[in-house]
Amino acid sequence: MTDALVLLVVVPIAASLFPVALGGRFERIGWFVAAAMGLVHLGLSATVAARVLDVGRISYAVGGFEPPFGIELVADGISAPLLVLVSLSTLGVLAYARRAGPHSNAFYSELALLTAGISGVFATADVFNLYVFLEITGLATYALVASGRSPSAALASLKYLFVGTIGASLYLLGVGYLYIMTGTLNMADLTEAVASVGYSSPAILTSFGLIVTGLLVKVAVFPLHTWQPGAYAESPDTVSAYISALVSTAAGYALVRIIYAVYTTEFLDEVSLAGDALVALASVSIVVGAVLAVMQSDLKRMLAYSSVSQFGLVVAAIGLANETALVGAVVHLVGHAVMKGGLFLTVGVFATGLGVRTVEDFAGLAAKAPVSSAAFAVLAFSMVGIPPAVGFVGKWNIVVGAVEAGAWSVAAVVVVSTLLTLAYFGRVIERMYFTAPEPEADAVSTDGGNETVEVSFGMRAVVVVSAVAAVVLGVLGSDLITVIQPALEVYF
Amino acid sequence: MTDVFSLRPLAAVLAAAVGIVTIVASKRSPNVREGFTVLSAVSALGIVASMVPGVLNGTTYVTDLGTFVPGVRFVLRADPLGMIFALLASLLWLITSFYSIGYMRGLDEHAQTRYFAAFAGSVSAALGVAFASNLIVLYVFYELLTVATYPLVTHDETEEARKAGRKYLAYTFGGGVAALAGTALVFLTTGTVEFSAGGIAALANADPVVARAAFALLVAGFGVKAALMPVHSWLPDAMVAPTPVSGLLHAVAVVKSGVFGIARVILDVYGPDAVGSLGVGLPLAAVAAFTIVVASIIALRQDNLKRRLAYSTVSQLSYIVLGLALLSPAALVGGLLHIPAHAFMKLTLFFCAGVIHVETHTDDISDMAGIGRRMPLTMIAFTVASLGMAGLPLVAGFVSKWYLLIGSIETGQTVFVFVLLASGLLNIGYFWPVIYQAFFQTPEDSDAKPLIEFPIGGVRAVTDGGSKDSVAEGEQYAVDRNPSDHVAVADGESDHDAATDGEPDHDHHHGGAPAGGWERRRLGTESTWFMMAPITIAAAGAIVLGVVPQTAVFLALVQRVVADVTGVVF
């Protein structure tokens, strides 16, 4: 049964070969390979999740080498829901890509590779292996971003490549320090090894600083976010949705694992600066991300900066070293993936169907595309944190955790972030629903530049499903928490 | 007090929520759509009303939907306090539905499906607020109410409406944020947010600083929708919405959800005893008293009828808050009873303003001289309701005010007695001119309205021997200098403007009497019965509440609430 865990990584890697290999003979085979991969992945992640619900933590030793010497893959209450999220996001994005493209076989190879990398990040229990998967994720993402046809996509990809590589290198350097001091790379093993070296050891402190900074680059927290708006905004809509849902989420998850499994809460207690710095950085990120989002006229850029702000919430909760807040962080990771992925796809529907991409263009959109507009409104209000949608569940837990931890300033920032989020989504919704469209808008979109494609049923369905999922996840939030909580409890 | 598991509280919320779906689904056929509005209003009212006898006998209907967030269950409970609000909202929704149909069709408004769907959504959320069993569930519906009302505020789709909508969202979500923060504090200090009559026991023993902070956050949060000064200014701006919205939502459902939230906080979260011992009741009462007086004074200077009514609402809502903050049993009865009393009266007044708008496109009070000839029944209803507002006997406002007065004397805070009496006089001050000129003046022969037309303190135009120009311009006249001439000049000017404009834009204000004065119409022929019947029923409701308060169900519910909380049986 635990084989499913390794297959979650192996199947997408294997699948990534087929579109390129068979592409010469069958022009459109990529989508079918990817779809088959997605379905198998869903089956595997469901198996893993069922097993985790049944027995709790499950572990798999790669190649039969027992940990701590071999590489260990682990699934527990935190990673299992995220693995299922990967499968569902993949299928959702594929349903969308069927019509919207990109259609090249190389795209589907890269997508499968990205799935493998992200699944690996969620499954691994080895800090060096984590680096490998983060790099697979990163490389696949660079390529995917570059698959946008505009020159600025290439530029964004290059920028991401530079910044992302620096982040990964910092992480690797930190892992090197850890390995020198402890002689092990297995997370469970590191817990005790780090403690025995002593939390005040300069090498350990350095490794913490390097690893966390490296991961924060990947998470895209202000001021390390510079790669992210370009990467999200310039890549094809399908890619934006997929990477916004999963790539930063994977890095955020890695941050949770590294800080709590390797360094533990005792480290945070002893080195109070570590947690405080994270919280301070995150609080700034929440506010600045939202302010930058308000200033954007391009919808995708606005959503990208919104991610900077939202991941600030997650990182703040991680830095608080409080169980309730950490539960909120994981819930918000899942919730944000659903909401932001859905929002990007919705914006994609508007862009493909109607050729609108800026806040200006959104005037009167609700009349032209009522269903997608309603989905956008639901997702946006969910992101604002209107109950009962999932955005509220995460935020509530983070607020309660912050107050429990006595971090009043964080509680205030998180609570106020509701209004900041409202500030950038409110103006879009207002334009969509309550502003008459400019008469010449149609003429502009037809005379070249933006070509529009008929929006398929699949595209519309994915958008609606994600909106429904955001609400349903919120209603079932307490069930999600009962899955996550036992896995997090061990850290406290 | 027995708890009975029942799906009826949930069914009431869903009856209205399902209305959204059916209304949107039947958008192609307006008659079917309006049928669904009425159907869901009737079923919501029926379900709520079916619980009234049980609740009066001490039964509480409970729907438990399981855990929502850890430590908090999603439970709907129909207890006496919730029933007051639910019964009021669902009853007045039914009345307003008919009025809405007449109003929206009378003006041939756009986006009627969105309007009716959002209306059903708002009422559904209001019922959820009423039946919420703890602060979190209350917060959930409180926020949903904000979202559902937003499309109604912005309905006009003009820049002014969008601005009002923006302001509305910013204010109410800001309030929601404060309420959420207060909820989190209560949850952490006591481990529960469950309402219980007389307050959460653990809160009385909590750290007083934290308890006070949580109280301040909660009351400030709910106070935004209750339009306590200084966070009231969204309400007059929201009057840009269609009049039924102003009537039901901005005089009843939305603003009273704020008041209701404060009532829950004082009665069921803290309990009057804890509020008293924390010493937070008196500051709240002071804010309420300030709001009562200042809002009434501002109302005196509003020429737009709906804005004047809005400031009157701001003032009257604080009666309720004042009653709650005074904490004595009689004051609590008065405050809570003022929830339905004000609802019936203010709904009547807004309905009157709306029907005047539909029939004559007149919005400003200065254009309404002699309108009693054109709309006799409307203005009679207006008179009845405004007398009630002022607190004259035989109308609902008197009963609640009587209890409020007794309550203020009971607590020994005589200053509030003077506030209440002064507010009564101010009410007469801003309603009487409307009534007087409607019945006893004509457009050709009407007095100037110094408070509206001149800057505060008068104009120092001619005393210093200024240039002749300033005297020649009619607007510079002092009040006592031939005022009727002045009005005639002003009228002539505006007629001239209208003639040169000549735009057939019916939304734009070009109200006032037609040339040759108002035609005389008989009672009841002034508009369609879709609008006249709701006005009559709402006004009749205000009288019933005033004449036989003991048989009208609201006072019984209020007395039950107060008995549960304080132990004092009336």
TrEMBL record, chain A:
Give one GO biological process term: ATP synthesis coupled electron transport
Stated membrane topology is:
Multi-pass membrane protein
Membrane-crossing segments per the record: 6-24, 31-53, 73-94, 106-124, 130-148, 160-180, 200-221, 242-263, 275-295, 302-321, 341-359, 371-393, 405-425, 461-484
Q: What is its main location?
A: membrane
One annotated Gene Ontology cellular component of this protein:
plasma membrane
UniProt KW Transmembrane helix keyword: yes
Q: Which domain of life is it from?
A: Archaea
Q: Which GO terms describe its molecular function?
A: NADH dehydrogenase (ubiquinone) activity
| Methyltransferase listed as a keyword | no
Q: Where in the cell does this protein reside?
A: Cell membrane
Domain spans labelled NADH:quinone oxidoreductase/Mrp antiporter transmembrane: 126-421
The alphabetical list of record keywords is: Cell membrane, Membrane, Transmembrane, Transmembrane helix
The entry's protein name is Monovalent cation/H+ antiporter subunit D
Record organism: Haloferax gibbonsii (strain ATCC 33959 / DSM 4427 / JCM 8863 / NBRC 102184 / NCIMB 2188 / Ma 2.38)
UniProtKB/TrEMBL annotation, chain B:
* Record's keyword terms, sorted: Cell membrane, Membrane, Oxidoreductase, Transmembrane, Transmembrane helix
Q: Which domain of life is it from?
A: Archaea
Write down the species.
Answer: Haloferax gibbonsii (strain ATCC 33959 / DSM 4427 / JCM 8863 / NBRC 102184 / NCIMB 2188 / Ma 2.38)
Query: Which compartments does it reside in?
Result: Cell membrane
Specify the signal sequence span: none
Q: What is the official name of this protein in its record?
A: Monovalent cation/H+ antiporter subunit D
Annotated NCBIfam families: PRK07234.1-1
The transmembrane residues are 6-24, 36-56, 81-103, 115-142, 168-188, 209-228, 248-267, 274-299, 319-339, 377-399, 411-432, 529-548
For this record, the Gene Ontology CC terms, alphabetical, are: plasma membrane
Return the annotated region ranges for Disordered. Answer: 490-519
The yes or no answer to whether the keyword Hydrolase is present is no
